[in-house]
Amino acid sequence: MSNHKVVILGGQGAIGSLLGRLFTHFGCVVHSVDKRTQGVRSDCYQVDILNPTADSGVIFNEAKAVVFALPEAVAVQALPWVLSAVGDDVQIVSTCSVQAPFYSALKAAAPGQPFIGVNPMFSPSLPEQKRPVAVVLDSCHVSEHWIEQVLKQADMRISRMMPEEHDRVMALCQALPHAAILIFGLVLAKSPLDIRTLATVAPPPMRTMLALLSRILRNPIEVYWDVQYENSMAAEPRQELLHAIQQLDSIVQAGDQTEFGDNLRHIAQQLGEQLDISAADCQHIFSTLE
């Protein structure tokens, strides 16, 4: 795959920059396309992806892959332009946090176009070694893809899944915890108590929740909006979260300690061996905060 030309739309963003570096280390020739460019490098093109000029399609000449490192809605809108400029053997790569809508749009427009999704499950500001990445394919029973080789060379942990499966997993792995943290933040923001006083006496669980909330608040709002809004499958866990809050409140209001304990034991049973693994993770986090 050495010397493969890879065009990254949104190449100056966090995900685009991460993948650009990984492809470069693999021996590919990377070209970045963005509304903004840094410096005057010859491999960077300043293009309004949603309003490209008539001659901008030359960017894709001889490209082996085009990476859509863009928000979901922008990626879908940019798809017709890209497909009009590339051959039917050019690899389309989606980095969307929600994969099914882009995949459906691609297959409706070009059923035979090669597709792979890459969703890093960590902040691009962190080292990628040993980090998990979701790889989305038409079928999980195909041989290893050359883009998977790029990710493996970077020592990332790959989990294969299909588009709808990916979005269902993300609804629980991303949308649900983010929603729970945001609800915590909304309640906290309405409290009349001074946050400095709360932080002074906060035990490790509270400090951990504050840390998670603060991380969300420090990052771009669009990231967390896309996780909730673009994934239609996220609605169900949000509703389940609301139902669970009402259920907990009902149990406590009724003074039913037996049902409270039964629920905790059921949760522990469902976690299985993950219970001990996650308990150890928690101990590690708390030891850092103490």
From TrEMBL:
The positions making up the signal sequence are: none
Q: Name one GO molecular function term.
A: prephenate dehydrogenase (NADP+) activity
On the tree of life, the source organism's domain of life is Bacteria
Q: Which GO terms describe its biological process?
A: tyrosine biosynthetic process
**The Prephenate/arogenate dehydrogenase domain covers which part of the protein?**
4-282
Q: Print the keywords alphabetically.
A: Oxidoreductase
PROSITE patterns, A to Z: PDH_ADH (PS51176)
User: Which Gene3D superfamilies does the annotation name?
Assistant: 6-phosphogluconate dehydrogenase C-terminal like domain (1.10.3660.10), NAD(P)-binding Rossmann-like Domain (3.40.50.720)
Task: Cite the InterPro entries for this sequence.
Answer: 6-PGluconate_DH-like_C_sf, NAD(P)-bd_dom_sf, PDH_C, Preph/Arog_dehydrog, Prephen_DH
PANTHER family found in the cross-reference section: PREPHENATE DEHYDROGENASE, PREPHENATE DEHYDROGENASE [NADP(+)]
Protein name, entry field: T-protein
**Which gene produces this protein?**
tyrA_1
